[in-house]
Amino acid sequence: MGMRALPLLLVALVVCLSQSAFAIKFNIPATRYPPAKCVWNAAHPGALVIITANVGPAEGQRLDIEVVDSSEHKNVYLNKKDINGEKRFAITAHAEEDIGVCFRNYLDSSIPSDGKIRSRVIDLDVDIGADAVDYNAIANQESLSALETEMRKLEGVVKEIVDELEYLKTREQRFQDTNMSTNSRVKNFAWFTILSLVGLGVWQIFHLRAFFKRKYLID
């Protein structure tokens, strides 16, 4: 019985270690010119990202949301203004970069600047990859049993792990190629330095020899 339970324990451990869900609850102050408050999560290209934001009520405040990534192109996936209540957004990552969910809370100009700090509560939930898939909806659509639904979920998790291992393998190969290229350049530079020093030494010898001959110090 113990041996039969071992594979199930291993699968459960893999599922626990591969979770890509992130939830946070925080207050964001409102100002006339608010800075962006961003929450970042890692995502692979093609990964489904589900963003659920539950915004608390507030008077005289306007909350904007923008979803970007940290790539050099600064891709903007989403830009919504004046969100309230519970909102749910879905995007697909385009680059191997972090996905940032950014908020700006604007204070209305009609609100007097009396020094009182005004803010609102945001309950943010970010699901990436297999965690972003609604398996309950799939089960209802395809009439899957509870066991079949769990197997479908495990299949998605295992695929995500395989993709992660492939990415790590590709990145390791890229680092290895960079390391070999750097070593080759360092070696070439070392040979160039040695040859330059030898050439400079030979030139100095001939130059000094010619100088001493002009001064009649040597024959």
Structural class: alpha+beta
Question: What portion of residues belong to β-strands?
Answer: 25-35%
Through-space gap between termini:
100 Å
Would you list the SSEs in sequence order as H and E?
HEEEEEEEEHH
Strand order of the largest sheet: 1-8-3-6
Overview in brief:
This protein has helices at 2-17, 135-142, 146-214, and strands at 21-29, 37-42, 48-55, 61-69, 76-80, 85-92, 98-107, 119-128. It has 219 residues and is α+β, with helices and mostly antiparallel strands.
Any overview of this molecule?
The longest helix is centred in the last third of the chain and has 69 residues, at 146-214. This protein has a four-stranded antiparallel beta sheet with strand order 1-8-3-6, with no helix packed on it. Strands 2-7-4-5 form a four-stranded antiparallel beta sheet, with no helix packed on it. Helix content is 42%, strand content 30%. It is α+β, with helices and mostly antiparallel strands.
Give the SSE layout.
Elements: H1 2-17, E1 21-29, E2 37-42, E3 48-55, E4 61-69, E5 76-80, E6 85-92, E7 98-107, E8 119-128, H2 135-142, H3 146-214
